[in-house]
Write a structure and sequence with these properties.
The complex is a heterotrimer of chains A (433), B (484) and C (252). In chain A, 17% of the residues lie in helices and 40% in strands. Chain A has 433 residues and is α/β, with parallel strands linked by helices. Chain C contains 10 helices and 10 strands. Chain C is globular. Chain C starts with a strand and ends with a helix. The chains are: A alpha/beta (433), B alpha/beta (484), C alpha/beta (252).
């Protein structure tokens, strides 16, 4: 297997507990290795490209200055705002090639955003949350992420603070080197009654064939009565590998509302694991994907209802063209004591071409009788009669398809509460890039 | 090399309602415990088999030794010691019975007790022909002469191996090869008997065919094998019933059913599985690991599986359809009920290979007590299966706070013209429904039974009538004591 | 001399921790029709549920005697077999259970209780058809699963059919909610009126006076805050219709 675990000097190597944690991550990753066809959780998504042992961490700062040869194609980082008006209405945090570049200055009171490594050095409460929301033994990529723990953010929204504008985490990749890998960790804490919108945006510039590997772990802690709206759009280069794991813990009457639009990458997976740990906690996980080429895009969810009166809903819709493969795996788990819970899940996909493929595995795991649960899945193609009807009225084929695809995705996009973000994502969810 | 097994101890009937839990006192011819090439040679020799079959058995056995027991199912049970089992047990008879008059009267009595009269004149209208399999061997097959008039072959598979070697050689293992899975491989090495059916071209089988499986001997695995071939344009409806005595230890049952459906033919296969489920604390009960598969080889062929699963401590079973012929149709209707400590992991696979193939899955799971049940299904559409259709519906009903119900449907679609739909719901019997029934004077147990039967109705109506009545009764018995 | 059928004394009941019925008193004699009216949210439905033994309510004090027996000690089905019938505003759906099957079970459970011979399928179907015809019920409806996909009117017809077949001695018509379907109600009202005899009694629970034009009550009670605040004859209902409930609530 690939040498994804490499001996490198990372910041914070003088902290024994941190080094110990990284080592543990490396050990757990090597124990599991990369998922294979037999790994049930990765049954339909084999990250074969990672088998090549040629990924490296980004070079150090001074080298980067010299190495960047993107030239005229390079519209690096936070300078690029075209067609992304919503960013003007957001507190922006910029990352370039996996490294933090810039944090918005004018943050309101009660909101703290620190570079992860700084929070680790300050040791001001982060250890209670760091690496506490998932099991490294069952998540090879989260373990790998832990082995490289360094980059990322520690965000705290204090009690009853309501953020007036979204926080936008913009991750920009550009190919000054081939085969870079980035490991990012964000620990986000919403204290009791806090409310925030967070947008993650992954894009790239330069050679669209650039090959890199982004591995993100978000640890999201939502306090009682708190509410997090978590939006994500990934539009990675078409040879990139993008793997994200969101571990979400929601306390009593708290609410997690996730929406993820996946558009790019050779292989991309957005996995969300929500634990509803106290009464009346709620989660809504919606997602859309629209893809072509040879991409494999995976949306995986796992919602654990661990307390009574908890509620979750999921709507995931996909449009698969080219020779691409869409994957949806969704699980609703209901613990024995979680009575009066409700869980609902629906996945629908459209196949546009003869070579497109869709693999679906919805799952209900229920351990008490006082629940209401349902799931549904459907797949099919564009309606030929509808297409013909539009064409007979003079609408071009591509346009007609786009109209039908827009209509298909409309209900899931409607789930986005923020109008600016809804408009932005609706404009991105198009057949042609 | 044979030992005579004496009368096994009478199982204790304490508080259990399994009415088929008795043991028949009959001398049997049993091979020594354990599994080896010698035992396989012995089985083959006892059955007077041709060399090609022995070779196949040994090949399977060698492959099996390299396999590991699967662990992916949501089932937990003590490790099975495959060397601590008997692999061959036959009721002792001096010579093979030529007619029913020669069959041991004890055996006939057993089947009568089970409600399966083997004497033809006792069967009312002659609508069902029965092959009775007792432990490892077929003891009687009724109405053979009448069926033969139409060219229908219905006999023990051991006999078919000798009488119709060409058919058996051609089709045996062609749907479920020994490499398929651990339990199928084991069966391919050690199967002892089962039923063989051949329906010739254009023949509509004049009566229902039925096999009745009974495990009697102790510590004996039952490995029967059924092969059904429906030639072009033919039709047959086949029923399978199963029971076993009530015993404290677990009994192993690993069967294979293979169905070959040729052009324009149709096979309807119905099962009422009522193996001993173990007592209320989960002691004893049958481990049921079954591979059932039908290949719709010809155009316009159709196969329909209907199952009512109420028994067994462990059920591992996925009756499947390979829809190879264009326009072929596969159906799966299932009711599974688990109570007490029973565990079932069951479902189906619909593999769409031909054009315009369609499949339908209706699965109704009812969990009560401390039982756990999983629906596991696969719908797969290959790139060439244009216009494939699937509709799946999996509903679970939970009774009581301690049971578990799980639904895992896999859908793999590689053809854009396919239209696939899956729905699953989980519910309990609502207090509103119970109250409504009670308000109209219906008692609680009766109300539960009404609601459960209503829940299963869509499936039950696919069973042949006599079977449906029996199955409805079984459902009620299985759920006794699960409410209140 | 009137024979009391239902005697409610000082009844208090609650759901979870909320007191809904607070010191309720009412006696209904054979042959009488009583109406209970009250504003929305007064707990009118709770009263009908408690009388029929629906789970989820806690009786904290008081007694209810029906034909002299302690009603509160009986299971819901026993009450039904003793002749109490609740016509529900929103009868529940039971998928897969045809009307015919359901009713056959109910009829025979009640007949058995009354020591009458059970009806066989032929007799039962005949009875069902006859009674159904009177109510204008399409025979196809009898084959459908009970209440599943029924329109409001069909549900009401089905309740009326059950009333006619089960022949209760004490019927409770619960139309507590303001969402009353007047046309559908006519059917029920006729069925109820057909059952009025000198032995049978009825309790009509409603929000609107309109219903009481079709089923004319002997007594009208105004129910608020968990008990009866005023009683009178049918004219009281008209008064409420004109002036609303406010006057009764203020008196408190």
């Amino acid at each position: 297997m690939g040498e994804l675990v490499q001996k490198v000097e990372l910041m914070g190597s003088d902290l024994p507990w941190l080094e110990g944690l990284r080592e543990k991550g490396a050990v757990f990753f090597e124990k599991q290795g990369l998922p294979t066809a037999k790994t049930e959780a990765w049954k339909y998504t084999r990250p074969r490209d990672l088998l090549a042992d040629d990924f490296i961490l980004p070079p150090l700062e001074e080298e980067k200055e010299n190495a960047c040869t993107c030239g005229e194609h390079c519209t690096c980082g936070h300078h690029q705002r075209e067609g992304e008006d919503f960013l003007l209405q957001a507190y922006v945090i910029d990352f370039e090639n996996g490294a933090l570049e810039h944090i918005a200055h004018n943050l309101p009171r009660g909101v703290t955003i620190k570079p992860l490594i700084e929070a680790i050095y300050e040791d001001d409460g982060i250890r209670k949350y760091l690496n506490k929301s998932f099991d490294m033994e069952k998540n090879p990529f989260a373990a790998l992420n832990t082995a490289y723990l360094e980059q990322g953010l520690f965000i705290t929204i204090e009690k009853n603070v309501m953020l007036d504008k979204p926080l936008a985490l913009v991750h920009h990749s550009f190919s000054c080197h081939e085969n870079l890998m980035f490991h990012l960790r964000n620990v986000i804490l919403l204290e009791e009654g806090a409310k925030a919108e967070i947008v993650e945006y992954y894009n790239y510039s330069g050679n669209e064939k650039s090959r890199y590997f982004t591995n993100i772990v978000n640890e999201l802690y939502i306090g009682r009565h708190a509410e997090l709206n978590h939006y994500k759009f990934q539009d990675e280069a078409f040879k990139a590998v993008h793997i994200a794991y969101n571990a979400v813990k929601v306390k009593g009457e708290g609410r997690y509302n996730g929406f993820c639009l996946q558009r790019g990458g050779n292989l991309a997976r957005n996995e969300t694991h929500v634990s509803l740990t106290e009464e009346r906690a709620e989660a809504e996980i919606n997602a859309a994907y629209i893809m072509n080429g040879w991409a494999v895009i995976d949306t995986t969810t796992d919602v654990e209802h661990l307390a009574p009166y908890t509620k979750s809903t999921q709507l995931v819709k996909g449009v698969v063209g080219g020779q691409a493969k869409g994957v949806f795996q969704g699980k609703i788990h209901i613990a024995p004591m979680a009575i009066k819970t409700e869980g609902a899940q629906l996945h629908k996909a459209l196949l546009l071409t003869d070579e497109a493929e869709i693999d679906v595995k919805p799952e209900l795991e229920i351990y008490n009788d006082d629940v209401k649960c349902s799931h549904g899945a459907a797949s099919g193609e564009l309606d030929a009669d509808q297409l013909f009807y539009m064409r007979s009225r003079g609408i071009g084929e591509e346009e007609a398809k786009q109209i039908l695809v827009d209509a298909y995705l409309q209900d899931v996009l409607e789930k986005i509460n923020n109008q600016d973000i809804k408009d932005w994502l609706a404009a991105k969810a198009k057949l042609a890039k | 090399m044979t030992t005579e097994q004496e009368k096994p101890e009478i199982a204790d009937e304490s508080g259990d309602k399994y009415k088929y839990g008795f043991v028949t006192d009959i001398a049997s011819d049993t091979a020594p415990k354990g599994l080896s090439e010698d035992i396989i040679r012995l089985i083959s020799q006892k059955k007077g088999e041709p060399d090609w079959l022995l070779e196949r058995r040994l090949e399977a056995f060698r492959f099996w030794q390299k396999l590991k027991e699967p662990t992916w199912a949501k089932l937990s049970y003590d490790k099975i010691d495959y060397q601590d089992l008997y692999y061959y047990s036959a009721p002792k008879q001096k010579v093979a019975p030529k007619s029913l008059d020669e069959v041991d009267p004890e055996l006939l009595k057993t089947y009568e007790k089970l409600g399966i009269p083997l004497k033809e004149q006792e069967v009312l209208s002659g609508v069902v022909a029965v092959d009775a399999v007792f432990d490892s061997v077929s003891v009687a097959t009724t109405y053979r002469a009448k069926l033969a008039e139409k060219g229908v072959i219905f006999c023990p598979i051991s006999e078919a191996i000798k009488e119709y070697p060409e058919l058996v050689k051609k089709y045996l293992g062609s749907v479920v090869p020994y490499t398929d899975n651990f339990f199928a491989c084991l069966n391919s090495a050690v199967f002892t008997d089962g039923s063989f059916v051949y329906i010739p071209k254009g023949v509509r089988c004049p009566m229902e065919l039925s096999t009745y499986f009974r495990i009697n001997a102790q510590n004996t695995g039952q490995f029967e094998r059924t092969l059904i071939i429906a030639d072009e344009g033919s039709y047959v409806s086949y029923l399978e019933g199963c029971t076993a005595p009530q015993r404290d230890e677990n009994q192993l049952h690993a069967a294979i059913v293979e169905i070959v459906v040729l052009k324009d033919a149709e096979v309807k296969y119905s099962t009422v599985q009522n193996w001993y489920p173990g007592d209320k604390d989960g002691k004893g009960g049958v481990y049921n690991f079954v591979t059932k598969r039908a290949a719709c080889r010809g155009a316009n062929s159709k196969v329909s599986w209907t199952q009512v699963e109420t028994g067994s401590a462990i059920t591992w079973k996925y009756p499947s359809c390979i829809l190879q012929g264009d326009n072929s149709v596969g159906e799966f209707y299932s009711v599974a009920i688990t109570n007490n400590r029973q565990q079932a992991d069951t479902g189906t696979k619909m593999i769409h290979l031909g054009c315009n193939t369609s499949s339908k899955i209706i699965s109704k799971g009812i969990s009560a007590g401390r039982s756990n049940q999983t629906y596991r299904g696969l719908v797969k559409v290959s790139p060439n299966a244009d216009n494939a259709r699937n509709y799946s519906q999996c509903d679970s009903l939970l009774i009581g706070p301690d049971c578990g119900s799980h639904t895992i449907p896999y859908v793999e679609n590689r053809n854009k013209t396919a239209k696939l739909e899956h729905e699953a719901t989980t519910s309990k019997i609502s207090e509103e429904q119970l109250f409504y029934c009670q308000q109209r004077g219906i008692g609680e147990e009766e109300a539960v039974s009404l609601i459960v039967n209503g829940f299963c109705k869509e499936v039950m109506q696919h069973l042949p009538l006599e079977f449906a009545i029996e199955a409805a009764k079984l459902i009620n018995i299985s759920l006794e004591g699960s409410v209140g | 001399m009137k024979t009391p059928l239902l005697e409610i004394e000082d009844l208090c009941a609650r759901v979870a921790d909320k007191e809904i019925i607070k010191g309720f008193n009412l006696t209904i004699n054979e042959g009488e029709v009583h109406a209970i009216m009250g504003p929305n949210g007064a707990g009118k439905s709770t009263l009908s549920h408690v009388l029929c033994g629906k789970p989820g309510y806690e009786i904290t004090s008081g007694t209810v005697r029906y034909k002299g027996k302690n009603l509160l000690a009986m299971a819901p089905e026993e009450r039904a077999r003793e002749g109490i019938f609740l016509i529900m505003q929103y009868p529940v759906e039971i998928p897969g259970v045809p009307v015919t099957t359901f009713l056959k079970h109910a009829v025979n459970a009640i007949r058995q209780h009354r020591h009458e011979p059970e009806l066989d399928t032929m007799e039962f179907i005949k009875l069902l058809r006859e009674e159904g015809k009177k109510l204008g019920i399409n025979p196809d409806m009898l084959k459908r699963p009970i209440n599943v996909g029924f329109s409001g009117g069909e549900k009401k017809r089905l309740e009326a059919l059950q009333l006619a077949i089960l022949k209760p001695q004490f019927s409770i018509l619960d139309e507590a909610d303001s969402g009353l379907d007047v046309d559908a109600m006519k059917v029920v009202a006729e069925a109820i009126n057909a059952e009025r005899t000198e032995h049978n009694a009825m309790l009509v629970i409603t929000h609107y006076q309109r219903l009481l034009k079709d089923i004319v009550p002997d007594y009208v009670h105004i129910y608020a805050d968990g008990h009866i605040v005023a009683s009178g004859n049918k004219d009281l209902a008209l008064e409420v219709e004109e002036q609303g409930y406010a006057q009764f609530l203020k008196e408190k």
